[in-house]
Amino acid sequence: MVRLSNNLVGLLNFLTFVLSIPILVGGIWLSRQSNSECERFLEKPIIVLGVFLMLVSLAGLIGACCRVSWLLWGYLLVMFLLILLLTVFTIFAFAVTNKGAGEVVSGRGYKEYRLGDYSNWLQKRVRNTKNWNKIKSCLSDSKVCSSFADKFVNDTVEQFYAEHLSALQSGCCKPPSDCNFTYVKPTEWNATGVQNTNSDCNAWNNDQTVLCFNCESCKAGLLDNIKSNWKKVAIVNVIFLVFLIVVYSVGCCAFRNNRKDNAYWNRS
């Protein structure tokens, strides 16, 4: 008699196999189109994810539908490790994104960001010169500051100060407010000659390829962006974990059914 759990595992893994095809194709396409450090950074994880999903889903599909116990056992082992890793990552994501937030500045519609407010682990990632050079390449390729400049180019100083900027725009595309620079346009500011202890004031440059990309505030703005995204990912992970646990439980039932069937045929 056809077992419901085997059919359900087979169906779920067939859907996963179908899903893995566009992921793998997308990764291969990205590897051929990549011109920037950002794109090259993304292509390998996407290809690995596509191949991983394809192989695991095939093992689960064949193991459940063709009653191949050793394949189903391997599938369940991988699923167990995946649940374990995902649980650890989710806890870690909540832990490292627990600290840090933008600071409200008097008379400004936007917030400003301090690197020291974020978790030490995240700080170490962006303080690493090699890592930051790659990130700067990504920020430059994304044109985050050029689009920012175009959007607010007609703003007077009063209008600009009232704008609600993103963390990256506030941290990377303008100097910190405590530098007391004179506003010319969104990405052009003149130093007033006033001494300031903030190192970002010296790091600022009106060159459109430099701006505040070497500033601590830019690194902090990026971390605030990462913090927001990681929290969303962690919430999705919790939902996905529940789904994986259900699939794992059904897979265990299918494995038990396979063993019972094999024992029956061996006795016959």
Structural commentary:
This protein is mostly helical. 68% of the residues lie in helices and 4% in strands. It is built from ten helices and four strands; from the N terminus they run αααββαααααββαα. It has helices at residues 4-33, 37-65, 69-96, 120-127, 129-141, 144-151, 157-161, 167-172, 200-203, 216-267; strands at residues 103-104, 111-112, 182-185, 188-190. A hairpin with a 2-residue loop joins strand 3 (182-185) and strand 4. Helix 1 (4-33) runs antiparallel to helix 10 and helix 2 (37-65) runs antiparallel to helix 3. The longest helix has 52 residues, at 216-267. 25% of the residues are buried.
The largest β sheet comes out as: 2 strands, antiparallel
Multimeric state? single chain
Number of helical segments with 4 or more residues: 10
Quote the beta fraction.
under 5%
Structural class: mainly alpha
The helix content, as a percent range, equals: 55-70%
Alpha-carbon Rg, integer: 26 Å
Got a strand count? Answer: 4
Lateral strand order in the biggest sheet: 1-2
The ordered string of helix (H) and strand (E) elements is HHHEEHHHHHEEHH
Shape: elongated
- Stretches where pLDDT falls below 50 for ≥5 residues? none
The termini sit apart by 16 Å
Average of pLDDT: 84
